[in-house]
Amino acid sequence: MICLTLSGNTLASCLDEIKQNRAYIDAAELRLDLLQEEEQQKASSFPSMTDVPVILTLRRKEDGGQCMLSEKERRQLLLSALDGDFAYVDIEEDVKRNDVEQKAREKGVRIIRSFHDFSGIPDDIYSRIYRLSERGDIAKAAVTPHTIQDLLTLFRIAEELKDVPKIIIGMGDWGIPIRILYKKAGSLLTFACSGEAVAPGQVSAKDLKMLYRADQVNERTGIYGIIGNPVLHTSSPLIHNMGFHAINYNAIYLPFLVDNVRIFFALAEYLKMRGFSVTIPFKDAVLMYLGNISREVKQIGACNTVVRMPGMWKGLNTDYYGFLQPILKDIDSGRVRSALVVGAGGASQAVVWALRNRGVKVTILNRTVGRAEKLAKINLCEYDTLDNASKYEGKVDLVVQTTSVGLYPDFDISPIDFHFTGREIAYDIIYKPRMTKFLKEAEKAGCTLHYGSEMLMDQGKLQFELFTGYHYPKEALQNL
Ligand code: NAP
Fold first, then answer.
1. Distance from residue 280's CA to the centre of ligand 1 (Å)
2. Model confidence at 375, in pLDDT bands (50, 70, 90)?
3. How far is the CA of 61 from the centre of ligand 1 (A)?
4. pLDDT (mean) for 174-203
5. If you average pLDDT over every residue of the chain, what do you get?
6. Residue 72 pLDDT exceeds 80
């Protein structure tokens, strides 16, 4: 089930949240602790106002909630709310057997026995979940992974406890994959928000249902994703999931925040992933784990696409292809013969290689000049420091911005001080924001512009083909 955590402070606003999200959810959690005091007294009437099963929760401050009542007052409030037809009631692990539990059992309300850890994953998580479920209750562990290893640990614990009725929540950014793959983890439900997250890392109900189709995941669902750090800003889940939906392909694509590539490969094996995209800063780091690499990866030295082959992982590069598509005609027609490439990082490797491969004369500018020199030597081109950018004014046909300067949220800066003549084609490979400071300057001078979103889409289309064997469907593009 996708369960909406209601964040309103009145019953009416909670009902409104349910109405707005009704198409995406199977259940709702009424957080009594977030309601105004007079509204709390009327909570028993809530379940009859909606057609979704409702979980009753009165979360204490120490468990991440707002309830400051004494334990006796809290019990009384829960008891009076339980006059209503709630489907579930959340009772914390350390609360001894009491009249709330008794009333819930008499009324056939299922008990969710929960514990929260905002600092990490407790060592005894396995035994605690097991013990909580022993009386037939649903065990709920909301814990905080801080590394990809922690995430792998959570999936493994979930697998070991696969026959136990439970809910495992990974809070924060590291836990997002287990929130989305809740069915894979054998969780009864995943909590979702309607707007602002009520708990750290919550995904919106709309995204869970419409983007990820998290509730449709089954044994046969192919798992794909993107690894990076940062990674949550990426639009790749939209491109790939919309493609899967359009051709009815049983697969899901999700973001993985990663700090250690080796451990991620262990997680990828564990989840039987079929492939994944690679972004900053892992395009080089993945190479040593690949059994096979394409000619382009070998020559570019960076890999942005990994696909499973029998017994090994294969690395490919679709960045160079995606980068070229929007300017291919200009290169083939001779409009672009020379280019200034700003940046010498992972993405620049693909850009420079693509341009050189098409015979364009390239000069690389980079803050760390040694890096520019190395890339220039490999690709037989020129290099210089960022400070010398003005030397090239009026002398190049194409200026490509490949650094991370200007990327959201620091979007009001450009890595170079460069006066465009208006004759150049300006191309920024950053896609968030679409219009960077670099492009604004070029637009003012009347240059032709190309956006990072064009490259992203074109590299994504080829990646989709490598992942699925199908062309990227035209219908999916209408939803992007
Ligand atoms: P990377 O390997 O980390 O390289 C970063 C580059 O930015 C390096 O050249 C670095 O210079 C430069 N840089 C960073 N901070 C700087 C600063 N304060 N001043 C001057 N230069 C600075 O990253 P990447 O993988 O190449 O990615 C770079 C950008 O391309 C990202 O914004 C990414 O989102 C975008 N990208 C877009 C697409 C697409 O499909 N549109 C695909 C791939 C990447 P130093 O060498 O001096 O550190």
1. 8
2. very high
3. 42
4. 92
5. 96
6. yes
Q: Which CATH number fits domain 327-457: 3.30.420.40, 3.30.1300.10, 3.40.250.10, 3.40.50.720?
A: 3.40.50.720
What is the arithmetic mean of pLDDT over 196-216? 91
Q: What's the average model confidence in pLDDT over 334-349?
A: 95
CA distances, 390 to each of 36, 393, 405, 426 (Å):
61, 5, 18, 15
For residue 18, count other CB atoms closer than 10 A to its CB.
23
Confidence grade of residue 408 (pLDDT, cut at 50, 70, 90): confident
- Domain locations along the chain: 2-220, 228-320+458-479, 327-457
Instruction: Using the mean position of ligand 1's atoms as its centre, give its distance from the Cα of residue 430 in Å.
Output: 9
Kindly provide the residue ranges of all beta strands, DSSP E only, lying in 131-174, ordered along the sequence.
138-143, 166-170
**CATH classification code of 2-220:** 3.20.20.70
Q: Report the residue among 240, 402, 436 best suited for mutation to probe ligand 1: largest number of ligand atoms under 8 A from its CB.
A: 402
The CATH topology of domain 228-320+458-479 is Rossmann fold (3.40.50)
Ligand 1 centre to CA of 308 (Å) is 27
For residue 196, pLDDT over 90 is answered with no
- In this predicted model, what pLDDT tens digit does every residue of 410-460 receive, in sequence order? 889 999 999 999 999 999 999 989 999 999 999 999 999 999 999 999 999
Give the catalytic positions in this structure.
283
Is residue 374 within 6 Å of ligand 1 at its C-beta?
Answer: no
- With a 6 Å cutoff on the Cβ, whether 318 touches ligand 1 is no
Location of structure tokens 């979103």: 453
Ligand 1 atom nearest the C-alpha of 367 is 47
Atom of ligand 1 nearest to the CA of 304: 43
Residue for token pair 């750290």:
200
Give yes or no for a contact between 160 and 126, defined as CB atoms under 8 angstroms apart: yes
Cis peptide before 409 (omega within 30 of 0): yes
Q: How many CB atoms lie within 10 A of CB 329?
A: 10
360 lines ligand 1 (CB under 6 A): no
Give the nearest ligand 1 atom to 347 CA: 26
pLDDT at residue number 60:
95
Q: Are 2-220 and 327-457 equal in CATH topology?
A: no
Alpha-helical segments (H) within 308-413? 319-324, 328-332, 346-357, 369-379
In the structure, what pLDDT confidence band is assigned to residue 200 with cuts at 50, 70 and 90?
Answer: confident
